[in-house]
Structures are given as structure tokens and as C-alpha cells.
Amino acid sequence: MSDLFTVINPSTAQPIADVPLASVEQADAAIAAAHEAFQSWRTVAPGERARLLRRFAAVVEEHLDELAEIEVRNAGHTWGNARWEAGNVRDLLNYYSGAPERLTGRQIPVAGGLDVTFHEPLGVVGIIVPWNFPMPIAAWGFAPALAAGNTVVLKPAELTPLTAIRLGELALAAGIPEGVLTVIPGAGPVVGERFVTHPLVRKVCFTGSTAVGKRIMAGCAEQVKNVTLELGGKSANIVFADTDLAAAAAAAPYAVFDNAGQDCCARSRILVERSAYEEFMALLSPAVLGIRVLDVSDEASEMGPLISATQKQRVTGYLDGVDVAIQGTTPGGADNPGFWVPPTVVPVEDPAMPIWREEVFGPVVAVMPFDDEGDAIAKANDTEYGLSGSIFTTDLGRGLRVARGVQAGNLSVNSHSSVRYWTPFGGFKQSGLGRELGPDAPYAFTEEKNVFIAH
Ligand code: NAD
What we know:
Helix content is 38%, strand content 20%. The chain contains 14 helices and 18 strands. Helix 1 packs across helix 7 (188-197), helix 4 (79-96) runs parallel beside helix 5 and helix 9 (245-257) crosses helix 10. The longest helix has 18 residues, at 24-41.
């Protein structure tokens, strides 16, 4: 008998489904089936693999609203976000459906014969997904992994398994053969851990907390197993006095409060040039108070609840005893049983404060002034993380200098974009290891093989 996990709607705190959690034996059986399926999936002709991925994309498109509705209920996402997330899965499948027919090797000039390289699939890839973006993060792994000829076992987060389960069904409906993409809901220390210890899983893609990521990396070392880690962040939004302050202040809340701040790329620290600090804070106030924090059943909602009671407790813990400068509201206020926290802005002077240093993963942003370009870069880099960041300035040279100076994997100048499937994504320092997305992602799911043929 499997254990059952009761899935909760975070907007209402009401149960919505009971999902069986797989045992180690069930995980082993799924991995064995994925290994079996690999033997034939890797030999499917590139054009046919491409066609199947495009068909999968089309089936996701046909079920876009259904998938979005599940995520609104299961993760408390807004309709706008949830539709974008389901659309992102479709786009990733279409983008990487171009890969099987383009996964070319090289012909290298050598003496005495012909030398060619091949990109061989790894085998079974294990993908461990967090609860903050259940659909996109799953697809960032499975779309390029499948395109490169691997089979995938995917473990969704305990809290948010429903869209992953549905995507597994849609893959089969699209004609992806049984065992090629297997969704295994289960506990992290059981199924996730098994991906790390099972010798037939040849790569683990993990997104989640830095603490678990370190454990996974150490476990993968035992078998010299490939691993990609996408971990936490404490990214800075650096606002120079020369920028259009009204535009920067209007954009800043969405860069941190989107998905209720449960975003590894959230710009959860705002650094403002001292001469513009007062004016920026005055402009930030109406921008924060203007965010539509509404029940997510309302299509106009721009921010929903946190994922769980535990997460709400963690996030509100950071607000104990700090001075709050700006705070929005939540639907129903304190009487709402869901896991709501209002958008909150906290000015910080002491960089040792936990709210300045730690990933809060909630709708909380800390703001600090800086003196000059060097001070801005030093403060932005004064963190163990290095995932993303933004720079607002009208001076293009300064924008480039600061972008080069900030130790993070994804910087944007005069915008807050981070994750675009066309471009590589990943972290410096303790934000991660390896890159996902972009044109090279399929290669990260292959071993390069060199073959020499003597004349
Ligand atoms: P977590 O790292 O515990 O969970 C992420 C995934 O890892 C889940 O699927 C979980 O089941 C699995 N997992 C847990 N323990 C495991 C183990 N021993 N072996 C293999 N897999 C395991 O994250 P959480 O507890 O859900 O969230 C805690 C904090 O982590 C958050 O508050 C946030 O700061 C951070 N977080 C970051 C991201 C991100 O995108 N970088 C995502 C989620 C959480």
C-alpha cells in the first residue's frame, strides 16, 4: 500500500486530491522501465523523435486551459501566470523538437584516418522538481533530455504533483512511448534520493533549496553521476539615479512579487543610488499598493497566496521585529484561511540582517541605498548566491560594466527578464551548477564520443 499525500489548495487551505506517494520499490520499477524504454527511444529516427515532440507540444496546446486551471487550484498561481506556464511547456517542446535533427558532431582533422564525434544520450535522466513553477521547471529538463534521446523519470514536489501527472498522461496521448517520460509522485528523501543512488539514472537535474542541492551533489559524486543544480537566489535590482525612476519603481514590484515571491530569480534586494533613494521610495509605494492581490479565481489577480502554511510561517518569521515601509493587503485579510502574505517592503541598513542575506521566497523585498557604481557592485555581490539581477540606468556603458561586475548567471539591463527558453539559464556561486535552456541544453544530456577510423 502506498502512502497518500493530501494536496491542498493554498488559496483556501482546503484539500483537493489525495496522491499516492511511490515507494523505493515503485521508483526502482519505474527506473527499470525507463531503462528498458531507452534501448528503443535512442534508436527512434531523429525526424520521428522530432515529430513526436511536436505532437506532444500540440497536445499540451489543446489542454492549455485545463493545465492552467489545475495549477491555479494546486499552486495558487494566477490565471495569467498559469496559462503562461502551460504555454511555456508547449514552447519548450516545440523549440527542442528542432534538436534531434540538428544534434551534429564534428569531423576533426587528424593523421592516418577519419575522426568524428557523436553526442550519445546518457540513458535515464532523473528530474526533481520544486513546487514554485511545477510545469516550466519540469519541461526545462524533460524537453531537451527527450530530444537528445534520453528517457526521463520525473518527481514532482509533494505539494504540487497534479500538472506533472497530467503532462505524463498527455505525453502518452501524443504517442510518446510508454516508459519514455514517467512521472513518479513521491517524497524527496524516498524517490528523489533514489534517483541519486540508482546506478541506472545517469543524470540528476535538481531545482530547489541549496541545502538539498548540496546533498544531491554529494550523492551523485558516489557514482560520478552528471548533475545540474538550480538553487536559491538573493538577486539585486540596482537602480541608478540617472534612470527613469517612475518606470523603475513601477517595474520593481513585479520583479519580486510575481508568483508571491516564490521565484528563485526574484529581485528580493533593491539597491537604489542614495541621491534618488527618497524619490524612489515615494514612487514605489503606489506601485506596491497597486498590485492586485485578489483571489486567484479572479482573472484580474496579479498575486496569489504562498504554497503552504509552512512557507507562510517561514516568510512571516522574517518580518518579526523589522520596520516595514510599505505593505499591501490580501483578500479577506487575516480571516482568510489560505496562505496569504501581503506584498511587503522593508528598508534595511544592516547587511547582516537575515532579510537581506537569506532567500525569503515570499512577497518581501528589502531596500538599501548605495553610494556609487563600485558600492552597488560590491553590495550586489555580498551574498553566497548568484542567480540573476537587474540594472536600471540610461548609461549604456555603466549598464554593461555593472552587468559584467555582478557575479550572477542572468543579468538584464533596463528590464527584469531572467528565464527565456532561447537563452542559457543558471547560477554562479551557491545558486547552482550547470546551465539549462538555450540552444546548448540538449548537449548537456549527452556524452561526447570520439571515433577514429584508420584509413
Ligand atoms: P526542497 O529543496 O526540499 O524541495 C525541492 C524538491 O526536492 C522537491 O521535489 C522535494 O521533494 C525534493 N527533495 C527534498 N529532499 C530531497 C532529498 N533528500 N533527495 C532528493 N530530493 C529531495 O525545497 P522546499 O523544502 O520545498 O523549499 C524550501 C526552500 O527552498 C524555499 O523556501 C526556497 O527558499 C527554496 N526553494 C528554491 C527553489 C528554486 O527554484 N530555486 C524552489 C523551491 C524551493
